[in-house]
Each structure stands twice: as C-alpha cells, then as structure tokens.
Amino acid sequence: MDDDANAPDRRTGWMTSAAWQQDPDGPLPVLGTVIEVTGQARDATLRVAGLGVFVAAINGEIVSDPLEPGYTDYAIRAEFCTYDVTSRLVRGPNVITIELGPGCYRSRKTEDRWTKIETAYGDLAACATLDWTDDAGPNGLGRWHATTGPARTANWVGGEDYDAHHEPDLQAIASWPTAVPAKVPAELRLSAKTIPPIREVQRLSAQSVTTVRPGVHVVDFGVNFAGWVELDLPPNAQVRLRPAELLEPSGEINPVTQGWGPVFHTVATADTPRTWHPRFCYNGLRYLEITGLPDAPAARGLVLAAAADPAGTFTSSDANVTELHRIIRRAITSNMYSMFTDCPQREKLGYLEQLHLVYPILRWNYDVRSLLANTLRIVREAQEPSGHLALYVPEWDPFPDPWRGDVNFGLAIVFLPWQLYRTYGDLELLTANHDTAVRYVEHLLAAREDGLVTYGLGDWNGRHFRYVPFVATSTLARALGVLADTARVLGLDGGRWYDVRAAVVGDVRQRFVTPTGEVGSESVAELAVAIHSGVLTAAEERAAVDRLERRIIADGYYLDVGEIAMAALVEVLASYDRHETLYQLTQVDEQPGYGYMLRHGATSLTETWDGPTFGFSQNHFMNGAIDDWFFAHVAGLRQAAGDAGFRQVVIRPRPCGALTSAAASYRTGYGELRSEWVISDGQFTLDVAVPGQTEAVVELPDGTSYEVGSGEHRFRTAAG
C-alpha cells in the first residue's frame, strides 16, 4: 500500500517501453498519451512517479522540475511529484510525455565512463495520473504508448548522450507501440515528495572562452558550481563536452576531480539549431571543454539547487572573511539537492557526518528543516536489524570496511534531530528518530572492544584515517550526553544514558588521557576532540585549551586536522574566546588552510586544505565550520543556553583582528534577527533587530550587557 492516498493510480501498473526492455543499455524510454480537453480546463493536477529520473511535458513544454524525483531506497520506496498544470492544457488534443533516465535507480558501469555506484533495481518506469475538469466533467488519462527517444545513454556521474535525430513525433503518439508493464521491486510503495524541488537558482555567463587547439574550446564560468551547462548549437553539429574544476598551466582542462574515469556529454543536432542542456544528470564544474566546432558556441551555466528558503546573510570589512563565507555558501548550495551530498561531481552521495558536524552553517544559510527531516526518514529506513547504519544513505551500493561503519556518520541519527529541535523547536523529529537512535547507540556499545570503538575513519582529512579509537569513542561519549538530553526533553528516563556516558568517558580517559591531563600525542586534532567531547575535567580542559592554542600558533596556523577535529576546533576556540587565533586561521596563506585556498583561487570550499593545488573535490562543505564563527561570534548571533526555536537569544559580537565592521542576519520562526556593528573614530556601534516574541541579551565587547525585547536597538561603547 502506498504511503499517500493521493499517489498516482497504479491500476494500470508501472509502464515502460518494450524497445527499451529489449535493449536496457540502449536508448532511453519515452512514454506518451493524448487527452482531449473540451472547453476550458479547470483544476488540472498531474502526479508522476518515476523510477530513475523523469522529465514530464505537456505539448512539448516541460512541466516537471529538474532531476525529479530525488533520492530514496528504491527497493522499498519511491516518491511522486505533483504539478498544477491547469494553465498548460489547451482546448482540443494535448500531448503528455514522460522521458525516463536511470539516475541512481539503474546505475550500470560502462567501459567509456566513470560510474561511482552500481545498481539495477528494475526497469526504468513511471506511473502517472492527470485529473482535471472541463466542460464535459471530470477526466483522467487514457492509454499510454512508449518508444525510445533522443537521450541515447545517461549516467548519473558519467554524462549523457543526446541525438536530436531520434526525437519522437509527438503528433503520432497513437502509432507508437503500447506501453508495457515494467519489472519493479516487489515491495515498492509511493509517498509524496515533501522537500523543495530543484530549481535554477542562478545563471552564469561565460567569463572567458579560449581556443586551446583547433576545434577545442575551453569556457570559464568564473566560479565553481553545480548544475547544467547550456549551449546554443548550430544545425548538424556533433560536439563532445567535458566538465572540469581545474585547469592545466597550458589552459587545457584538468578533469582529475571528476572521477576515476571519463566524464563527458555528446550532443548531435539535426537540421535546425538547438539549445541543449542535460536532462538526466548534472555536473560540478567551473570549466567546460567543447570539442567539435570551429568556433565556440554561446554557453551558460545553470546553477541548480533545492529551492530551500535563504535563512541568513553575512558580510564584514575583511576581504578574506567575507570571501570565505561566500565560498562556503557556494559549496553548500552546490551540494543541496534532494539530499545534501558530499560533492557534485565524482560521487553525489548522501554522506551523513557533515550534516551534524557542520550543521550550524547549513542552518545559518538556508531553511533546512524539510530537507534534513527527509534525510532522517531515509536513515530510519536504512537501519539494519542489528542497529547498524552506513556512511551514506540510501546505501545503494555498500562500501567495504572500514568505510561502512564509522560512528561519526551513523551518529547523525542522534545529533541531527537534537540540532533541528534546538533550531526549530521541532519535538516531532526528536520523537520520530529516538528509537532508531537508541538502537544504533546500543549497537555501538555492543561492538566495543575493551570499552573502545576500534573501527571507522577517525579524524578523516580527505586522505587518511587518524586517531580512530580515540575519535570514535570520544564521539560516542558526546552522543550519549545528547541522547540523555533528548530523553529528558521527551519525558523519558535519560538517567541510564548519563550513566553509560560516564562509563565511556572513563574508558577514554584510561586509554588516552594521562594523569596530568595530556591527550594522546597532544596533536591539535586530539586536543580539540577531547575538549569538545567533554572527556576532560574542567581544570584539564582549561589547560588543554591553552596548549591547543599554543600548538596552533607554533605550527604557523597550519590546519593539520580533519573534518571531525575542525568542527570541534572552531567550537572550542570560540567558546573560550580565542577569537584572535580563529581570525588568523582565515588569513594565513603560506600553508594549507582557509587563506591558502583563497590565495590559490578557490571559488567554492575544497575537500582538502591544499585546495586547488591538490586534485580532490573543489566543492565540499565539510570543512566549513568557520562560517558558524562568522555568524555566532564575529557578528554575535547566538541562541541562549537551553533555548529551542530561537525564542531566547544572545547577541554577543566579538571584534577581532583587522575587522572594523561585520553584519549578519538570520530569519527565525518569529522574524529577522540581525546584528550589525562598526568601529569608527574610537567608538563601537552596534545595531540589532530582535524578532517578535523573542527575548534577547545584548553583550557588548566591554562586558556590559542589556536585556531587550523585540524591535530595533542601538548601543555604543568605546572601541577596543
């Protein structure tokens, strides 16, 4: 039974093309039907469920959003999408078509293209209903026909092949073969899509076009982005398109970050010009190589992302600080599709760890409640009977160990509902995910060896697994505290989890903390994780923060940490008001780090600290924790301790370094929260806006504090 009574009527079953069934690695299927509208159409609603990626059109005009429907575990569930198409129907015959591509539903490896995962759940298929009323009364869809179309192949990461010579005749649908029943997973059910659709959010013009060889042109769109390339092609053209994030010194593209195999599109036009972009995949790129034309065609970059509402803004007087915010936001946007992905080029998978590690930067920039609630549903569906959770969901193609079971990935089921509750006051998400969280934590506790979690990735830095038992077990200790707090808020007995946490902390201390409070090898990563996880006493923690800061300064602000320790490092230094050190991390550019990325031309946050000088993803948000410091400490927008939903806030800006001004805003459920400060002529001036139904404490840099209610307020004090 489907999860929603409004799901498309499946009495006619899932449909596909007989020609495609005979050659499932060949041209992609197109379904079509014709309806007759008598008079004026009213209240027309089209519902489509597609297995793979679908493109729905009426009278040749696309009505679906890009890359529908989104990620699910196709063995058990697919989503249907709903469109109001009243304005698209005309008097007389109307042609309805659905084109189908494989997406992650049927991801097959080929010799010519890079493929990250391999899946084969069944036939590419769709089911659909169109309900409307006209002068003849209520109506619905009739017989479906099916053929194959101009999309000859499509690979979710490898690219797409298109040939306009195979466009089907939409005026002759009745002569197409009848659509045939499709083979689909037996337990498959349908549910309504609940997240924002993917939309074009920005259009980029070519910043330069270089002919590197006769017939080979390289387009630079100016920034790294995720989405579609769109070209205006002449008649009878055959072109090959290769995306890239990097250039060689010669000006040729360097496609190394695209994957461990070729990534390209081919496009053939017929007797008329054609404006083309992919339909069944997307790319992460800055550069596009175009081969096959004497002159470069007009090209645009269509930036695609989930249409989540923007939540916050930030700017400052410091060029590095402001630019870092921009490239972090761009990396978030580039990976905000039906789920937050790791990267928009070689993988496009829903890894879980970054969702909680850098949750604040997602929240500051976008309204992420529905996107992350949907991800948590998929996490619940993915849990194994043992309680195990994987690194990414849906886990279409399981990774081998040690990739499959790291605690910082699975523990998103504990941390993320709590973070969403703090932001949005959403008790429903806490309740919905609590049992899954408990089962996962019990699985981790049972899997320990001598009190420690000994497997996983540790402080993953894009290259190496580091400090695995220490990081894994310390994170478990922190999660147990959050689980206890969750139980308390839900009116359950959290005492058990506090007790278990104390025991796990004891195991960590016995193995990794000396009697005088030193941690492991005293690396920056170990110190940051130990402080953040609460495995030190209060006195040990204060001393450890001093040692941590001294080590960072002695290392020349070199960020020798992975994504686990980086998130911890920012929170620890900020909570102890070590803002000058955090500011220097944005400035130093001689060694790999934030400043180094900017110095070497990064336009989105990179996967590793050496950014454009190293061939890993140039579009990852996992190391973007510094953006939280910009909002929460430089501008000073913070929740009060114990608050849920931003009803009680603290505005506590902290000027530092060479900053002379900063401003941030955040749209809460009650209105806009804003902080804007400037230092001029020896005076610090702060303007704040407090939303309705909100109480605020404003603390100036000199320590003076004020309690204020909703409205706009100005404060002044001597600078410095």
TrEMBL record:
Query: Quick check: keyword Hydrolase in the entry?
Result: yes
Query: What's the superkingdom here?
Result: Bacteria
EC number, UniProt record: 3.2.1.40
Q: Which UniProt keywords apply?
A: Hydrolase
Q: What residues does the Alpha-L-rhamnosidase concanavalin-like domain cover?
A: 211-299
Which reactions is this enzyme annotated as catalysing?
Hydrolysis of terminal non-reducing alpha-L-rhamnose residues in alpha-L-rhamnosides
In terms of InterPro entries, this protein maps to: 6-hairpin_glycosidase_sf, 6hp_glycosidase-like_sf, Alpha_rhamnosid, Bac_rhamnosid6H, Bac_rhamnosid_C, Bac_rhamnosid_N, Rhamnosid_concanavalin
**Residues of the Alpha-L-rhamnosidase six-hairpin glycosidase domain:** 311-634
**Residues in Alpha-L-rhamnosidase C-terminal domain copies:** 636-711
Pfam families named in the record? Bac_rhamnosid (PF05592), Bac_rhamnosid6H (PF17389), Bac_rhamnosid_C (PF17390), Bac_rhamnosid_N (PF08531)
Q: Where is the Bacterial alpha-L-rhamnosidase N-terminal domain?
A: 41-201
Specify the enzyme's EC class, one word.
Answer: hydrolase
Q: Does the keyword Nuclease apply?
A: no
Under the heading SUPFAM superfamilies, the entry gives: Six-hairpin glycosidases
The molecule here is called alpha-L-rhamnosidase
Species of origin: Kribbella aluminosa
